[in-house]
Amino acid sequence: MRGRLVLLGVIVLALAGGPALAGEPQGPAWHGKMEKSEGLTIVSNPKAPLYRSDAVKLNEELSIGEAQGGKDYAFFRAWYIAVNDDGDIFVMDQGDACVKVYAKDGAYLRRIGRKGQGPGELQNPNTIHLTRDRRLVFDDYIRGLNIFTQDGAFVKFLPTTYFIDVLVTPEGRIVGRVNTIQSDRPGKEIRVYDGALNQQTAFLFLPEEPRNPQVVKPFAGGFHWALIQGHRVAVSYKEDYEIDVLSLLPGPNLRIRRDFSRVKITKEEIDDIQNRMRGRKMDIPLGHAAIQGISADDEGCIYAKTYEKTKDGKSFFYDIFDREGRYLARVPIPRTVSPKVWKGGKMYSLEEDGEGFQKVKRYNVIWQIPN
Q1: Contact of 157 with 119, CB cutoff 8 Å
Q2: CA distance readout (Å), 122 to 89, 94, 115, 146, 268
Q3: Closest by CA position to 208, among listed 235, 189, 227
Q4: Could you report the per-residue pLDDT of 326-352, keeping only the tens digit for each?
Q5: In this structure, what DSSP letter does residue 269 have?
Q6: Residues paired with residue 114 on neighbouring β-strands, in sequence order
Q7: What are the backbone dihedrals phi and psi of residue 268, each rounded to the nearest 5 degrees, phi first?
Q8: Who's near 51: CB < 8 A, 6+ residues apart?
Q9: 132-175 pLDDT, tens per residue?
Q10: Which of 231, 166, 152 is nearest to 197 (CA)?
Q11: Closest by alpha carbon to 170, among 229, 236, 244, 105?
Q12: What is the pTM of this model?
């Protein structure tokens, strides 16, 4: 067995919050405010989180991926992770055009999919999603969705050439971001479909701003999203600190804001991008956008990756919001660690070792109770 249990590396995260992530905050009072406007609850958070003094620990307990372990334990370009309720770990390996499945203890179980253009074969696998009826859904970029059982049997293929990004809910609803036109203006919107790709609803049309093809904006803010417990999706698409939590079914929507200061773009960052885009005219803003990524756990909490760093520059801060949108904590996570799944009190990440080999790691998340 090449996946091995380890209790070695410990990342200590300066944060208090513990049980508050699964329920009402305890300890100090929250100093933000909530107000309703046209059916939208706006949650305005202060710059400082609710908890600041205690700590959370991520104890590394499992590492998968060894250069000497053969192809079953080596990753050629691991990109995405999903974890089922049994603790089985599904790793999308784009370089191998398949998903490699590992048991809770790290033992290799099987691979699902292979390179090709036939039924159940993959060209450009991108993301994977698990449903409650034990289906595995591949987003094969550009072509469509390949659906398997979690045991590896091919079920069907759904062509989705019009999707830019795809999420699949545990209930099997398909959430796609698509190009569209409204009032003669091009843009993108989010659409919700059933498992047979019958559209159910659409929301959040984002019109495209006029572009100058001669000018590159290398530090422009991006579009980030994540599914959240309770048929909701969190979306960030602005330069400012704002996260919309939108219901996929009829229900209340939330907008989370946080007072923040833009992180200055360093000379080293500018020099690096100029070296890679020689001869291109660039529009350099005064600072980075507020958010560079979003994820969520199975308790409904949101993790927003910011551009704020620790003093040594080795870690980015992740802001944690509870299901009500309250800013609980800021957590420094090393830049070499890429969290992909927060589930069952565990964090699953993709990382590289000192020799450049990819690893899938699982950490036990230990929340300290504030005094």
Answers
A1: yes
A2: 20, 9, 5, 8, 39
A3: 189
A4: 998 888 899 999 999 999 999 999 999
A5: H
A6: 121
A7: -60, -40
A8: 15, 16, 17, 20, 25, 27, 28, 328, 329, 370
A9: 999 999 888 767 899 999 999 999 999 887 888 999 999 999 99
A10: 166
A11: 229
A12: 0.89
**Token duo for residue 288:** 């980075």
Beta-ladder partners of 304: 294, 319
pLDDT attached to residue 53: 52
Q: Residue 186 phi/psi, 5° resolution? A: -70, 155
Retrieve residue 196's tokens. 């047979």
Given CATH 3.40.50.1000, say whether it is the number of domain 4-367: no
Chain-centroid distance of CA 262 in Å reads 22
Q: How many residues does the chain have?
A: 371
For the segment 176-187, what is each residue's pLDDT rounded down to a tens digit? 999 998 888 899
Q: State the sign of the Cα–Cα–Cα–Cα dihedral 129, 135, 136, 137.
A: negative
Q: What is the mean pLDDT of residues 223-248?
A: 94
Is 320:301 a contact under the CB 8 Å cutoff?
yes
CA distances from 290 to 146, 261, 293, 302 (A): 35, 8, 10, 15
Q: How far is CA 141 from the centre of its chain?
A: 17
Which residue in this structure is represented by tokens 């398949």?
Answer: 98
How far is it, in rounded angstroms, from Cα 356 to Cα 74? 12
Tell me which of 51-55, 157-161, 231-235 is least confident. 51-55
